[in-house]
Q: What sequence folds into this?
């Protein structure tokens, strides 16, 4: 996952949820991945995330969720800690998790505070 992708991910994650997602019949895709389900209009960061997942899937990865989750957590936690001046209490509040959970995740990711 590139830094450019992660920067976009964080920028888009901070934006309000989109209300213009389309699931009209004309927007349905005929690709094998989406056959039988409604197709949504994706933001560029979502398309890049799907491409990253696709590469891992076709590469035979057995830990796709864990790998992506760890990479996103690293960037997200680092960003929030930077924005809160390293304040664990405020960062955990902004992330919606407890302080002990944040501290445990920091240890797991080997991130310094």
A:
């Amino acid at each position: 996952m590139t830094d450019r992708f992660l920067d976009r991910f964080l920028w888009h994650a901070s934006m309000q949820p989109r209300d213009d997602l389309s699931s009209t019949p004309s927007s349905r895709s005929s690709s094998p991945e989406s056959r039988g389900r409604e197709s949504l209009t994706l933001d560029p960061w979502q398309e890049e995330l799907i491409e990253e997942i696709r590469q891992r899937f076709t590469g035979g990865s057995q830990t796709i969720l864990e790998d992506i989750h760890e990479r996103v957590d690293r960037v997200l936690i680092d960003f929030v800690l930077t924005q809160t001046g390293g304040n664990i209490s405020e960062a955990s509040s902004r992330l919606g998790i407890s302080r002990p959970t944040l501290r445990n995740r920091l240890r797991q990711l080997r991130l310094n505070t």
Summary: Confidence is low (pLDDT under 50) at residues 14-30. Helices lie at 3-13, 44-58, 64-83, 88-95, 99-109. The chain has five helices and no strands. The longest helix spans residues 64-83.
